[in-house]
Design goal:
There is one protein chain. The chain contains 2 helices and no strands. With 64 residues, the chain is mainly alpha-helical. The chain has one domain. It is globular, with a radius of gyration of 12 Å.
Length: 64
């Protein structure tokens, strides 16, 4: 991915659901998992929140 995808990733995860960003529909998927490298996640405004939520999940819920 890398930094070239950072804006698209931000729009997909934090932007409104819209036809201009088809991946944004994943916001409605209850079990969607998005794997990103640090550069692709670079423009997420709530990055630390997402990391904290993942870190506080019980072991049986973690994806490994």
């Amino acid at each position: 991915f890398g930094k070239d995808k950072a804006e698209a990733v931000r729009d997909m995860i934090e932007g409104p659901v819209s036809a201009s960003c088809p991946g944004s529909i994943l916001q409605f998927h209850e079990q969607a998992i998005v794997l990103l490298d640090p550069e692709a996640a670079g423009k997420l405004s709530r990055k630390q929140y997402y990391l904290d939520v993942y870190a506080s999940k019980p072991a049986w819920q973690l994806w490994e």
